[in-house]
Amino acid sequence: MTSIGILGAGRVGTALAHALAAAGHHVTLGRRENSDETLTPPARAAALHHADHATTARTSDVVINATPGDSTLDRLTALRGELAGKILIDVSNATRDAADGLPGDLCYPGSSLAEQLQAALPGTHVVKTLNTMLFMVMTAPGALTTPPTAYLSGNDEPAKKTVTALLGDLGWQPGWIEDLGDITTARATEAMILVVPHIIRRNGFTPFAVSLAR
Questions:
Q1: Does residue 195 lie within any of the structural domains?
Q2: Is residue 36 a part of any domain in this protein?
């Protein structure tokens, strides 16, 4: 059992919290202090602990960033001390919204949110994954008719090994996990978000992932 803290109580964070708690992990769902975030039914139903972001980061061995990507860097930089020595799994995409509210442009062209986080948090092991799919696929990859791909980017091999095991607890088979290399490779997977709004506009929020076909 791993002690996992999740920063962000929206659809992504609560879905991951519910699935990881069901897999037997000790999960704390972090919400901002004085937050008006409303917990979704999975978060209320699961046997979860709740705390503010600082407490969640400080008391967890692995922390998942599920905060809005355009404000993640400021939020997590403020938690540098709490995140020191931890594995930080970043599943967010840092984008500026288009007129219809869907992702438009990248916040860090020529770089990535994951790279920015690793630079700002040198004592933390940042691993990028699960950011190339709709959130419901993160916890139910086997529901798709075609095997999806979960990409991994990170500098620390033991950290990526830990994250790979957690992906397995979420239903990801080893052949569906693609380790791309160090944290700089996250700029490639984060750029994949630019295709997502076009697919959503044509097909709605039907579950899909941007995956390799072999």
A1: yes
A2: yes
Which residue is it, tokens 């920015």?
A: 116
Q: Quick check: is 9 in a domain?
A: yes
Q: How does pLDDT run across 9-64, given as a tens digit for each residue?
A: 999 999 999 999 999 999 999 987 644 444 444 444 446 899 999 999 999 999 99
- Residue 211 within a domain: no
Q: Parallel, antiparallel, or unpaired: how do β-strands 3-7 and 26-31 relate?
A: parallel
Matching residue, tokens 């975030």: 37
Which residues form the domain of 94? 3-203
Measured distance CA(100)–CA(159) in Å, rounded: 37
Model confidence pTM above 0.90: yes
Q: Among the residues of the chain, which ranges form H helices?
A: 11-22, 41-45, 53-58, 69-77, 80-83, 113-120, 135-138, 157-169, 186-191, 196-203
Token digits for 80? Answer: 């540098």
The full DSSP string for 161-212 is: HHHHHHHHHTT--GGGEEEEESGGGHHHHHHGGGGHHHHHHHH-S---B---
